[in-house]
Model the fold of this input.
Amino acid sequence: MHDHFDVVIVGAGMVGASLACSLLTCMPALKLAVVEAFPLKTPDAALSSYDARSTALSWGSSRLFEKIGLWSSIAPHATAINKIQVSDQGFPIAARLDRDRLNLAALGYVVENRKLGIALLEYITRSDQIELLAPATVTDFRPTRSGSLVRLHQENAEREISTQLVVVADGSESGLRQKIGIHTDVEECKHAALIANVSVDRPHSNMAFERFTESGPIALLPLAAYAEDLHRYALVFHLHRTECDRLLKVGDEEFISQLHSRFGYRAGRILKVGERNKHELIQARAREQIRQGCVILGNAAHTLHPVAAQGFNLSLRDARCLTSVLFRAHENGDDLGSLALLDQYMDLQRQDQVRVHQFTHFVLELFTMKQLVPRLVRQLGLLSLDFLPAVKSEFIAFTAGLRSDL
Amino acid sequence: MTDNTPKAASVNGNVDASEIAKFEAVAHRWWDRQGEFKSLHDINPLRLNYIEKRAALPERQILDVGCGGGVLSEGMAHRGAHVTGLDMGDAPLQVARLHALESELDIDYRKITVEALAETQSACYDIITCLEMLEHVPDPESVILACKKLLKPGGHLFLSTINRNPKAYLFAILGAEYVLKMLPRGTHDYAKLIRPAELARWLRRHGLALQDITGMAFNPLTQQYKLTSDTAVNYLVHAILSNDE
Done:
């Protein structure tokens, strides 16, 4: 006899873990297994670092975490984005997106990945309904007449578990997705992102910046204070690969002056720059996201360019939508892995996914334009962003993730 | 029965050597998703889901007639089916065998016509698929008769082919082969295309109950395929062998 689980989630990253929490809140009787290749020890909350990496959550995502019952443990570590200033190098007018226009508590939040991870992991480990299998890898996945068999390699032993539904959420390089023969279309970008945390000489006042420059867009997201570094931002600096490599190597002072020459002093004077990392940019989409007894989720399904900060937020909406579709089937005692059911999920989320892809693509095109005419278009776009309420609301709604809030 | 017996039912006769040669020449690029077989890869998830919604695949015995390089066979094997693939081209079969090794799938690929196989076995498959092949053989009805012999009672037959009418000529031949160059020129011969009514008549004649006919359409702007009620060009057919056959 195999151990049987209603749902097996492969990958305990932010998307897989969020889905586990979402399913559990909605269906407390569900028996879940979460399989993770890396050892998962509850990270020491006190252990922190200036260079910790963060994620921008849209307003809609914060509401989804609220529904799952996780927001109260995330909120203390979240920095609200109340305003976003959008500007263009060589163009005097900047547009401002403001939470007040939408009567929201915030446009979004910036949360350290680690803090988000701790909140999710604590929720999972508290539950008796979730078995956390880590470190463990899936060595085989076999559909059978009554569901699927998943073979695992855990602590030098083989184990077989059975389930109705396998959710593949093990990231953009998903090994399981490849193993079951799902092809992915990958689009390599000419740009890379240089990521670092920086400190400035004045308070951020919950303002985020997005600036289009000759070399690519630069974003600054407000972060919580760290020790004596009170005014901290997360920097996402889009550059050509070669330029990125060069700026990774230069000294701090030189780097800060390069940054100032492109970004100006709109956020204040930069006093300190932390560890710089390069993030390769790709856009990827799996050819199939559903099969009988199987769903591909998160970066394994679609990897988005981070320029519009939509990737995780979209995956969270996917996870929530999947939860509600599974909930209805669970209520009726139906098979959670039926293709007809998963088709409903895909029908509901397809439009959202396509729209986000188009939006990201549009922002990317807009941000990397070099010629005079497209630049004028972009600047006109900026102007209309400021002067045409409809355009602006649309842009904010997208940024805040209100487009398809459940 | 004599009137209805397909004309080329001789066991190894239902093969067009020039058709086999077309596919031999390009077999090494069968799994190149940007090459001649791009559209085959693009429609594969769509037709696999069409099949799986109508017949469960896991642990079923499936015969894939005209399997070529194994794109559909592998898709069904990934979904838990026990697949036997038939083709008359040496090169495509070799490609299929090598690729299955790479994919760690156990698929039995055989060089034999479905008519010849039906001489040695009967009523042993739960599902038979014969997609994008009927328009390449001299006598499609003989293929259907052989499939019927090989199906278990209540078994499922899935077929797909191209309609024969001016629109199909425009889209499937002029459009796909000459304008968009999605397929190599000469892939399809207009006279060999098959109308749904003809296919339905052959199925009925051999005790196969027609369940569904669904069209497959390509949108050149979005480069996407979708299932549609319009069967004027490409179409899929599902039939079930009645239990008392």
User: Anything to note?
Assistant: Chain A touches chain B through 16 residues (CB under 8 Å). Chain A has a mean pLDDT of 86. DSSP finds twelve helices and 20 strands in chain A. The radius of gyration of chain A is 22 Å.
